[in-house]
Amino acid sequence: MSSRDLVMARVRRALADVPRAETPSEVAVERTYLRRHGDRTPAETADLLAENLADYRAVVHRTHTAALPALIARLLTARNATTVVVPPGLPADWLSATDIRRIPDTADLTPHDLDAVSSVVTGCAVAIAETGTVVLDASPDQGRRRITLVPDHHICVIRVPAQVVDSVPEALERLDPARPQTWISGPSATSDIELDRVEGVHGPRTLEVVLVTED
To answer: Which residues form the LUD domain (predicted)?
Structure first.
């Protein structure tokens, strides 16, 4: 018996008592797991997000709306950035304090082009405090997936509290499953057999997250 035959036989045994006409939507699935762990205020949720992001070696900054452009300008200057990729829907004022050359996110940008870019600035779809995860869904302020996977430096702006949730179940309720999603927990990294950590393998080497308290 092949591995395929073995798996299919197990599936048939598991479904032996299920009527052929029954569909998954007709059977209620008991979901008794906790939707979140603990009862936090919005400020405490933001603090937990910042803590877990830092634990994943993301660089976390906190500011308010009026100071955001100046902060982004400082972060780009600190990286000696000469170019920055800009999603089509990025708020114009976010980059109003810098004159670094902007590279629009267009379909003709190749991975080679993006590899030569210094930085990328995006918004986010939602951020999950309990896991320290930032989720992108290719909305206009985030652009296509490739612009956050190829450049070596990613600045991601998260609005607090509007875009911050406690748990993964709460995040899933906000996301459209039909959209392309990228779930980011810290900079891209891997370890070799000796557990030497190498960053920047599958995405940005440096992830800077800006938590913006909305005025």
So the answer is: 112-212
